[in-house]
């Protein structure tokens, strides 16, 4: 049985998506695949259990015959029992993780361990990514999200510094198309000379960082006025309509498949948005739009969401969720799997794992 621990440098880097794509590829090649998220910092409630936020989705994608609450033995909530902060591990968190690992790995060819969202977390509980990977004797694959040329190489070298020889390799994610040449010709050779193997570089795709109308509505506790049947429609960009109608119209024309956040009383902005490529209107202040807006949105298949918060509060709430790669739609998952197949050296990855 082989184990692979997959972690990332920072939040919302695409770690879960990459973990699932690797799992699907392994299954397609005939391997029996297990999955475990040893430590979760994304608590959610499901049927009276505290579970990882993405546990049900992971279970369904990989067709795992286990309940979602069995996929993460340690779910960290804000209310950490004081005894868990003692040096002797009074909560026996390590024991829970080891027991879950042994159980989920039994009968499997490969177990994928989804690690922390950041190499900075987990030290308080002696459960940092490096510590957990060491405890489970698993090599580590690190996902590095692109922000700039220096940053992406620094982050890869940071992973090497933190993990040492346990680092199997890195995958770069969300690299702008115009930077791919630099990545392949300069960054990858530079890092190889310093002991860091880059196993893939994924180009940025707007549709993959998109969120659905349904996800947006759920996160905002919004009320549908129109378009409730379009919950799976994808939002690729967000715009705030706080300017004059003419200025707004010229800006709206630049962005495709967008959501426009504006006051519920800004009929002029709403109509301008509906004359361009708009997927969703988010109307703030708990104000119902004018009849003309509702009729035009219904004609054009645009969802209208009404939220009780003001525009600034709404934008802040969206900022907390937007940019997290979510693959809940079959179309997005298939697109991401294809992107991985084209840009990740699976043969080398599996060889390094001893498969």
Largest sheet: 6 strands, parallel
Radius of gyration (Å): 22 Å
How many DSSP E strands? 17
Overall 3D form: globular
Low-confidence stretches: none
The CATH homologous superfamily of the largest domain: P-loop containing nucleotide triphosphate hydrolases
Tell me the structural class.
alpha/beta
The number of domains: 2
Helices and strands, with pairings:
Layout: E1 2-8, H1 15-28, E2 33-36, E3 39-40, E4 43-46, E5 49-52, H2 55-61, E6 74-75, H3 93-105, E7 110-114, H4 129-135, E8 140-145, H5 149-163, E9 167-175, H6 180-192, E10 198-203, E11 211-212, H7 213-220, E12 223-226, E13 234-235, E14 237-240, H8 245-252, E15 258-263, H9 267-274, E16 278-284, H10 291-300, E17 303-306, H11 311-319, H12 330-343, H13 346-352
Parallel strand pairs: 1-7, 1-8, 2-7, 3-6, 8-9, 9-10, 14-15, 15-16, 16-17
Antiparallel strand pairs: 4-5, 11-13, 12-17
Helix pairs in contact: 1-12, 5-6, 8-9, 9-10
Would you kindly provide a brief summary of this structure?
By secondary structure, the chain is of the alpha/beta class. It is built from 13 helices and 17 strands.
Can you describe what's shown?
The protein is an alpha/beta fold. It folds into two domains: 2-205 and 325-352, Rossmann fold (3-Layer(aba) Sandwich); 211-319, Udp-n-acetylmuramoylalanyl-d-glutamate--2,6- Diaminopimelate Ligase, Chain: A, domain 1, CATH 3.40.1390. 37% of the residues lie in helices and 22% in strands. The chain is built from 13 helices and 17 strands. The protein has helices at residues 15-28, 55-61, 93-105, 129-135, 149-163, 180-192, 213-220, 245-252, 267-274, 291-300, 311-319, 330-343, 346-352; strands spanning 2-8, 33-36, 39-40, 43-46, 49-52, 74-75, 110-114, 140-145, 167-175, 198-203, 211-212, 223-226, 234-235, 237-240, 258-263, 278-284, 303-306. The strands form five sheets. The protein has a six-stranded parallel sheet, sandwiched between helices. Strands 12-17-16-15-14 form a five-stranded mixed sheet, sandwiched between helices. A two-stranded parallel sheet has the order 3-6. Strand 15, helix 9 and strand 16 form a beta-alpha-beta unit. Helix 5 packs parallel to helix 6 and helix 8 runs parallel beside helix 9. The radius of gyration is 22 Å and the shape is globular. The termini are close together.
């Amino acid at each position: 049985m082989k184990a692979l621990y997959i972690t990332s440098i920072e939040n919302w880097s695409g770690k879960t998506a990459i973990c699932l794509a690797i799992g699907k590829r392994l299954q397609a090649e005939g391997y029996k695949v297990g999955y475990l998220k040893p430590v979760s910092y994304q608590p959610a409630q499901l049927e009276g259990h505290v579970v990882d936020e993405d546990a049900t989705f992971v279970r369904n994608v990989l067709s795992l015959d286990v309940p979602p609450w069995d996929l993460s033995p340690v779910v960290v909530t804000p209310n950490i029992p004081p005894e868990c902060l003692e040096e002797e591990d009074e909560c026996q968190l390590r024991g829970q993780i080891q027991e879950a690992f042994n159980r989920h790995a039994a009968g499997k060819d490969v177990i994928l361990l989804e690690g922390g969202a950041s190499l900075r977390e987990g030290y308080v509980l002696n459960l940092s990514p490096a510590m957990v990977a060491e405890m489970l004797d698993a090599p580590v694959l690190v996902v590095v999200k692109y922000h700039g040329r220096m940053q992406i190489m620094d982050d890869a070298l940071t992973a090497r510094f933190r993990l040492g020889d346990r680092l199997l390799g890195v995958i770069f994610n969300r690299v702008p198309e115009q930077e791919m040449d630099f990545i392949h010709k300069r960054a990858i050779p530079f890092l190889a000379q310093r002991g860091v193997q880059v196993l893939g570089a994924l180009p940025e795709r707007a549709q993959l960082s998109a969120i659905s109308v349904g996800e947006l509505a759920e996160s905002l506790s919004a009320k549908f006025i129109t378009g409730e049947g379009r919950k799976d429609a994808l939002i690729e960009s967000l715009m705030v309509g706080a300017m004059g109608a003419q200025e707004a119209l010229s800006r709206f024309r630049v962005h495709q498949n967008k959501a426009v956040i504006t006051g519920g009383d800004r009929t002029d902005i709403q109509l301008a948005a509906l004359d361009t490529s708009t997927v969703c209107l988010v109307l703030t202040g708990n104000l119902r739009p004018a009849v003309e807006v509702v009729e035009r949105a219904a004609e054009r298949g645009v969802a209208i969401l009404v939220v009780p918060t003001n525009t600034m509060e709404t934008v802040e709430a969206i900022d907390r969720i937007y940019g997290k790669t979510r693959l809940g739609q079959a179309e997005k998952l298939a697109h991401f799997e294809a992107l991985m197949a084209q840009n990740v050296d699976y043969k080398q990855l599996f060889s390094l794992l001893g498969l």
